[in-house]
Amino acid sequence: MFKISGDISWEMAASIPVSALTVYHALMQSKARFNEFIVIIGAFGNTGLFAVQFANIVGAKVIAVTRKNGSLWI
């Protein structure tokens, strides 16, 4: 159980467990390890943000790619 702050919508809060578990499962399947490179496409989306955080937790080197406002960010 976790507390949802007032500035997060119910829809966003409901998507958090699904996004987090999807990324967790993908990282476990990939056997990502310390000091390996991981490229995350769509890093500013809900799932992408979890991917960046979880990859950092396992000690991987993260390359985050996103398209924000028509620009490509790496």
Order of helices and strands: HEHEE
Strand order of the largest sheet: 1-2-3
Report on the biggest sheet: 3 strands, mixed
Uncertain stretches of 5 or more adjacent residues = none
Number of strands: 3
Work out the radius of gyration: 14 Å
* Shape descriptor: globular
Mean pLDDT: 85
Q: Fraction of residues in helices?
A: 40-55%
In DSSP terms, counting alpha (H) and pi (I) runs of 4 or more, how many helices?
2
What features would you describe in this structure?
The chain is an alpha+beta fold and 74 residues long. The protein has a domain at 32-74. The chain has helices spanning 10-30, 46-57; strands at 37-41, 61-68, 71-73. Helix 1 packs across helix 2 (46-57). The radius of gyration is 14 Å and the shape is globular. The mean pLDDT is 85.
Descriptive terms for the model:
single chain, 74 residues, alpha+beta, 3-stranded mixed β-sheet, 45% helix
Compact overview of the structure:
The chain has 74 residues and is an alpha+beta fold.
Topology overview:
Elements: H1 10-30, E1 37-41, H2 46-57, E2 61-68, E3 71-73
Parallel strand pairs: 1-2
Antiparallel strand pairs: 2-3
Helix pairs in contact: 1-2
